[in-house]
Amino acid sequence: MVSDMGNYQVRTDLALEARESIDEAEGKIRGVIVSEQYREDTDIRVTKVVIESKNGAKAMGKPMGTYITLEAPRMLHADEDYHREVSEELASHMCEVIPHMEKEQSVLIVGLGNRDVTADALGPNVVDNLYITRHVVKEYGKAAYNKKNMHMISSIVPGVMAKTGMETAEIIRGIVVETHPSVVIVIDALAARSTKRLNRTIQLTNTGIHPGSGVGNHRCALTEDSLGVPVVAIGVPTVVDAATIVNDVLEQTLVKMRQLECTVWEDDFSKVMSELNNMYVTGKDIDETIKRLSYTISEALNIALSQLE
Question: Is the pLDDT of residue 285 over 80?
Answer without folding.
Answer: yes
